[in-house]
Amino acid sequence: MSVLVLRLAGPLQAWGASARFVRRTTESAPTKSGVIGMLAAAQGLDRSDDASLSRLASLRFGIRADQPGTRVRDFQTAQHAVTGKSMPLSERFYLADAVFVAVLEGDRALLEELHTALRTPVHPLFLGRRSCPPTLPVELGTRDSSLPQALHEEPWQAADWYQRLHGKEHTMVLNVLREPDPGEQRGDVLRDQPLSFAAAHRRHALRPVVSTTVEVPNPRAVLAVRAPAAAHPVPHHDPFDAVEEETP
């Protein structure tokens, strides 16, 4: 079994599963549709190439929240390009300072193709929206591993300041959202399984997921240091010894 491991880190991320009118939300973790779209952009695939998309969408997918980030809201204004009329105020949500580990499991040859494409992408990569570029290399490499094993064994990818912030904790419990193993009972479903990215008929299907946690070491954990034993005994000292007690 082989996996491709990705690091999704940037100032802003936006993994929207729904958009109603001028309000665009974001999920608390990357969607499979969004990550597959990024891989398709790296390979330079056409939006109407449903056959190639199906090949990518067949990969098993999992996410680990190494640094959950903070949900922020932004307001945007725009003018019509022809009439100059002001457009309705747009409300958009993002995840700020988040870091995720994404793992895709499948055919080794396909994963190697994707790894190469991420190193030299045809189109720019972004974390859910075009305004959210990654700040670190996305690809962490391919591994001979299973999806659950890779999500458990990959070193903690949180930012250095975030790791130092949790320096008193020697291990970190991280939330994981992954597709179930064969025969494993699913916990929930998400509508982010991509079927088509074509602008005329963009379609998604339901995908089973399992929510769990993994425990990983904190490389920035502060070790407790015992004070060294005194070389010589400390003499007794009581400042009240110098005060004479009056006799009643």
Q: Write the CATH architecture name.
A: 2-Layer Sandwich
Output the structural class. alpha+beta
Q: How many whole angstroms does the radius of gyration measure? A: 26 Å
- Please, how many domains? 1
| Number of E strands | 10
The residue fraction in helices comes out at: 10-25%
Residues in β-strands, percent: 25-35%
The termini sit apart by 90 Å
What is the highest CATH level, the class?
Alpha Beta
Q: Could you please describe the fold and organization of this structure?
A:
- This protein has helices at residues 32-43, 50-57, 108-119, 147-153, 160-165, and strands at 2-13, 19-20, 23-24, 60-67, 70-76, 90-106, 139-143, 171-178, 188-196, 203-217.
- Strands 1, 2, 3, 4, 5, 6, 7, 8, 9 and 10 form a ten-stranded mixed sheet that branches.
- The protein has five helices and ten strands.
- It has a single domain (2-79, 87-223), classed as 2-Layer Sandwich (Alpha-Beta Plaits).
- Helices cover 18% and strands 34% of the residues.
- The radius of gyration is 26 Å and the shape is globular.
- It is α+β, with helices and mostly antiparallel strands.
